[in-house]
From TrEMBL:
Lineage: Eukaryota, Metazoa, Ecdysozoa, Arthropoda, Hexapoda
Gene name tied to this protein: Emb
Top-level taxon of the source organism: Eukaryota
Keyword set includes Nucleus: yes
Protein name: Exportin-1
Assigned protein family: Belongs to the exportin family.
Organism: Georissus sp. INB106
GO CC terms, sorted: cytoplasm; nucleus
GO molecular function terms noted in the UniProt entry: nuclear export signal receptor activity
Length: 350
């Protein structure tokens, strides 16, 4: 901090394609340092690096496409950029918040990088998003009117980005442990035999982040999910992957809504899914839809306990799925029945 090292890195080495990956790694190391008396240097580091980045990688770049077409070095650059932004914003987010346009640009880059089709890069971004949403959520309970004002302005800073993030989380949701029906490499729908621990861990982290996002603005989460569900029903976004990620996301936020909102939302979701089951032909389509119906109903015992008629319909549907010839559907129907029977045991007896 007492030398010209940061200046040299940013202005001499960062713009040179040959050195930019190593330079970004060095800047990330510096950004990760926590010392109190050099705040001005951190602000300068951030603003100068961002200015260079905007020349090298204009804000309107479609980073997802650029990554998929890029060479190894360019792909590494995107990964290193994600590490730099996440490290700086995590360690010095309060300093970044003092310069709103710069913060918005940094968050814009992170949203674009989060859309890249590479799990390792997504995990880097997810760690920061989880950190940000949990912090915003924990500050949600203000003690004085002054703190309430501060929380609202702070939330306002991130509002637009959080809405985009909800879209990304819902579109990319990882597969939960309970889902046994999967698409194999040949495009066939089969029963899963090996547990994918990586996917299960990713699901847990994504679920936690999406729950925070729902607490911060459940109407936005519900609106996005409802819109995506309508696009499944009318066919504009219909695909196994899109339906899976949407239903896994819907199941993951169980308990994050008020009970009345949850009831209204779930009735709509299950009706639409049952409608899709009737509408689509073919064994594989039905297997995918059935697995999603079972996952969603298994995640909401509070709703089922409060609505006996609905519980009865769901259980009858599960018995129907138990007679399916598809292994995965049969096994999942049994697992879901046991899960519901344990969570709603009194309702079965009385």
């Amino acid at each position: 901090f007492e030398t010209k090292l940061i200046n040299t890195l940013i202005f001499k080495f960062l713009p040179v394609p040959m050195f930019r990956n190593v330079t970004l790694k060095c800047l990330t190391e510096i950004a990760g340092v926590t010392v109190n008396n050099y705040d001005d240097m951190f602000v300068t580091l951030f603003s100068q690096t961002m200015a260079q980045l905007e020349i090298m990688l204009p804000l309107q770049t479609d980073i997802r496409t650029a990554y998929s077409c890029g060479q190894d070095q360019e792909q590494n650059f995107i990964q290193n950029l994600a590490l730099f932004l996440c490290t700086f914003l995590k360690e010095h987010g309060n300093l970044a918040e003092s310069n709103v346009p710069l913060l918005r640009n940094a968050l814009h880059y992170l949203v674009l990088i989060s859309e890249v089709d590479e799990v390792e890069i997504f995990k880097i971004c997810l760690e920061y998003w989880n950190n940000l949403t949990s912090e915003l959520y924990r500050r949600e309970v203000p003690y004085t009117s002054a703190q309430a004002m501060f929380c609202n302005t702070r939330r306002g800073l991130y509002q637009e980005v959080l809405s985009k993030l909800r879209y990304i989380m819902i579109s990319r949701m990882a597969k939960p442990e309970e889902v046994l029906v999967v698409e194999n490499d040949n495009g066939e729908v089969v029963r899963e035999f090996m547990k994918d621990t990586d996917s299960i861990n990713l699901y847990k982290n994504m679920r936690e982040t999406l729950v925070y996002l729902t607490h911060l603005d459940y109407t936005d989460t519900e609106a996005i999910m409802t819109e995506k569900l309508q696009n499944q029903v009318n066919g504009t976004e219909w695909s196994w992957k899109n339906l899976n990620t949407l239903c896994w996301a819907i199941g993951s936020i169980s308990g994050a809504m008020h009970e009345e909102d949850e009831k209204r939302f779930l009735v709509l979701v299950i009706k639409d899914l049952l409608g899709l089951c009737e509408q689509k032909r073919g064994k594989d389509n039905k297997a995918i839809i059935a697995s999603n119906i079972m996952y969603v109903v298994g995640q909401y015992p509070r709703f089922l306990r409060a609505h006996w008629k609905f519980l009865k319909t769901v259980v009858n549907k599960l018995f129907e799925f138990m007679h399916e010839t598809h292994d995965g559907v049969q096994d999942m129907a049994c697992d879901t029945f046991i899960k519901i029977a344990l969570k709603c045991r009194r309702h079965f007896v009385t």
